[in-house]
Fold:
Amino acid sequence: MTRLLVAALALIAVFPATVFPGEADVTGVEVRQTDSGIYHFDVTVRHDDTGWDHYADKWDVVAPDGTVLGTRTLYHPHVGEQPFTRSLSGVAVAETIVEVIVRAHDSVHAYGGKTATVVLPR
Structure:
């Protein structure tokens, strides 16, 4: 049993990204105000999608108090397109909120990758 465990750990050390893809990371955010209190987000996500069993499946715009202000659902894996950028329009944000957090989600780990805190343009 010990030899099997050592062999498994050696494989993980040599091939970590291919054997166990990590969490989805937000690597870039562009935001612009389109109307009073309404915003458009272009978000870049990086995740080692392996197919339908493990892929980045959404990203959220979140207020500092944890309220989800908008979600962009990603309906398919992006195996050959990394990183990738997708947009979300019509996100309503109260005037009292000066910055938001953008977080990505994947189908295995849920949340936990790199987030981005963005100051909203006024």
User: Anything to note?
Assistant: The chain is about 15% helix and 45% strand. The radius of gyration is 17 Å. The first strand starts at residue 25 and ends at 35. The chain has one domain: 21-119.
